[in-house]
Specification:
By secondary structure, the protein is an alpha/beta fold. It contains six helices and 13 strands. A seven-stranded mixed sheet has the order 7-4-1-8-9-12-13. A two-stranded antiparallel ribbon has the order 2-3. A hairpin with a 2-residue loop joins β5 and β6. α2 crosses α6.
Length: 280
């Protein structure tokens, strides 16, 4: 049976915040921060997951015309350059090709506009159309989002071309009924506050209030809908104990290895029969 064609979408600025592809301080030593993209590439090359999927492209939404994006990517840049840090090793290959050759920019330039600017909704629709055009050009059967700092709308509405074909790997438990639920862009920091018995009530000011102490976190692979990490869960792993002394990067490293990589791998294995080329 033909492999499902997989396209991966991320925001480079999110990977840069994680120090992806670099060594980070970890309890007085150093550990390498492997990104989910690097993990998946290795899994497709060296595990049975590669019998189900072929990686066709890596799309990123970062905008070289944005001052904020340029500042966020000051150390990395918007494309791999010799001698400069990058989010994965420059020699990483997939099907014999350098992974860096599979990168495709589709910048979300609408973010330059103020949230209440009258032109912004049309600009957002234009971005999603450009993203869909790229996915169609790459013949995507399934799309994996990882740290995409954009909420999709038109692409995932009921009846849309990519409804239930776009999934997100999220560094937190997203199930509504779970006491460990951590949705949104600050899931790891939110979990760290929870281990201190605090809850953030305003992410702009980082104001907190007392809350029940929650000492574990995990990761979820879920379908993407028009909400924030609210889609149906495909597979999740609650495997990360939180030490209140953790730094944000120490917790991030632990959660990647103990929960997120397993959730990504097992979730894609479960999804494979539903997205193989030619499947109904």
């Amino acid at each position: 049976m033909p492999k499902a064609k997989l396209v991966y979408i991320l925001s480079l600025r999110n990977a840069a915040a994680d120090k992806a592809g670099q060594n980070v301080d970890f309890r007085g030593a150093q550990r390498y921060m492997k990104s989910p993209l690097e993990y998946l590439t290795e899994a497709l090359e060296g595990s049975p997951l590669g019998e189900d999927y072929s990686l066709e492209g890596v799309v990123y939404d970062d905008d070289a015309g944005s001052l904020r994006d340029r500042a966020a990517l000051a150390d990395y840049g918007f494309a791999w350059e010799p001698g400069r840090p990058w989010i994965f090793p420059p020699g990483l290959r997939v099907r014999g090709r350098p992974l860096r050759d599979l990168l495709h920019p589709v910048p979300s330039t609408y973010r330059r506009l103020a949230p209440d600017a009258p032109e912004r909704p049309a600009a957002k629709r234009a971005y999603e159309q450009a993203l869909q055009d790229k996915l169609l050009a790459l013949q995507a059967d399934v799309v994996v989002l990882d740290g995409l700092l954009v909420i999709l709308d038109a692409l995932v509405r009921p009846g849309a071309r990519f409804e239930r074909r776009i999934v997100n790997i999220h560094p937190g438990i997203t199930r509504t009924e779970s006491p460990y639920r951590r949705r949104g862009a600050h899931a790891t920091l939110d979990a760290l506050h929870g281990a201190h018995g605090r809850k953030v009530v305003d992410w702009t000011t980082l104001q907190t209030e007392p809350a029940p102490q929650v000492g574990k976190t995990g990761a979820s692979l879920h379908y993407v809908d028009t909400g924030i990490d609210s889609g149906e869960v495909i597979f999740d792993v609650l495997g990360t104990e939180i030490d209140p002394a953790d730094t944000i990067l120490e917790l991030r490293w632990n959660n990647f290895h103990r929960s997120l990589f397993p959730a990504l791998h097992q979730g894609l294995a479960l999804l494979a029969p539903h997205v193989r080329r030619g499947a109904p």
